[in-house]
Amino acid sequence: MTGQESSSVALEGNRYHASWEPKQALARAEGVIATELAARDTVDNGVRMFVIIGVPILGAAVISFFVGCCIAHVRIKRQEYGSKDVEMGRR
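RESULT FIELD:
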């Protein structure tokens, strides 16, 4: 092989590579887009799971806290005024 033949083979190889480059770039871009969509779906699923599971748990915690405060308030008032007055709504 002379130097000229090897350069023409190299050029043909580059042309072959260049013809595949847009397809590879497109496949790479599709892969990136698919990865981003999968990540977005993962985040959406996380938010959805938080709403389905977390919000009722947080709501139950808030209600429990409120009920606990009411019970503590009633107990304090019973100690201050006597149990019958608090139960009857009198001071």
